[in-house]
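Hi support team,

I'm filing this because I wasn't sure whether my run with protoporphyrin IX containing FE finished correctly. The job status page said complete, but I'd like someone to confirm that the output block is well-formed before I use it downstream. Pasting the exact inputs I used:
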Amino acid sequence: MDWPVVGVLPSLIGRIHNFNDQITTFLAAYGCNLKAQGPIASGMRYFATCDPANVRHIFTTNHANYPKGVEFAEIFDIYGGSIFTVDGELCRQQRAMFQSFMSNPQVVALMERSSRDKMVNGLLPFMIRMASTRTPFDMQGLINRLIFDLTAIPIFCVDPCCLSADMPSMHVANAMDTVMEVGLIRHILPPSCWKMMRRLNIGPEGKLATAHKQLHGFVREMMEKMKARSTEQDEVSAVDIILSADPAYSDGSLLSRTLLNYMVAGRDTVGTTLPWVFYNLAKNPRVVSAIRKELAPIASLKTAACISNNGTSTMLFFEQEETKDLVYLQAALYESLRLHPPGPFERKKVLADDLLPSGHKLHAGEIVLISIYAMGRMESVWGKDCHEYMPERWLSEDGSKLRYVPSHKFMAFNSGPRMCLGKDIAMAQMRTIVAAVIWNFEVEMVEGQSVEPKLSCTLQMKNGLKVIVRKREK
Ligand code: HEM
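And here is everything the job wrote out:
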């Protein structure tokens, strides 16, 4: 796949529609590690890996030698200076600030309240309407609306109301998708090439420039709404916490980039994961039955939490606290994240020459691509049934406990000092959403559709996930 002069570029572009699967095939064929080169004179030298021993070395043992690097920060310039794009001391400060936001008791309470409210007054009533007329709908689109609202509310203390009955335009979410789609192109092309397009404002770069304007406009609009809200509300937003932690953020542009980065952290991840969870569940009815069996004892105790819809139907919503010990449900989510991680790859830069546990030598300036997607599908890591959706692999023999799986083998939430800071919140959010949907509804995929990832830095579905739902007889 390495061509003279132009290097790996033609192979990548030729197979780009199937980017993650192609990398998986190559890595499986080359024993989890692969060197490749970009076009001559581009200076792009790649090392691709999905080898857990190398990943532990890169992300933990010698992580200081593997920053994200300035090229990564340039690719995601819209988030420049904020948590995803910085390394070293700046990153430590940003992580501390994010943690003080996520652990603030008022923020935690607001997240729980809004999660319940959106399910009870938004998602479940919408699904009841679709069920009553057997109308097919796009589950990914619906989840996107829900997660956009749930992510924005604690950041701005304002509800963008994407899940309201009139289904408003999702241009801001679409602009966030554009950042990830053009991000993939920027990862692949030599920087001089995409920077030229940016200067000329053409092709994907023209689309990205429009997306940037829409995203900064969204932040301005939300901040204005935030200022205008009732002063009696004692809620604390991310904006309040950031401004009180560091006055440097009163420069509006850094604050805007940081808030957009917080939006990505919550939205692009959970919003991308959940449609794949429903896809995997629809394909594996025995897993759905096992989750329902686990929910049944809680459901039978719940009468007070019943949601009445015009007196015609009763829906159950499970609180976060009620789902926290449901190991099978948790295993079903991990198993979906193994096969369909929302961030399918990571990128690191080599600072100084180094020797990896696999025996490969890396040179300063090289780019390391870590395929999280491929790692989840390697027979050498997960065994012969690695392509099957099997939550049982996460459970102890008697099924009563979750097995310990090290993060350098299951990379969906990253590994080492830059591990995801929202894992527990994300898992809690996903447990309650999946529990409510599958307890109350049968979800069937519309036949004949092609469900595949789009070309992007995230694993969003290209054509969505069309489903038909039916209310369950319990
Ligand atoms: C299914 C859900 C999620 C998955 C699979 C996930 C995965 C990840 C991954 C792979 C990274 C590393 C990104 C990188 O290095 O470029 C990361 C970082 C991060 N995540 Fe998550 N995430 C999820 C949900 C969330 C949520 C809901 C939040 C916030 C509420 C969050 C907050 C963060 C933050 C702040 C970081 C930055 C850490 C750093 O760069 O040091 N994540 N996450």
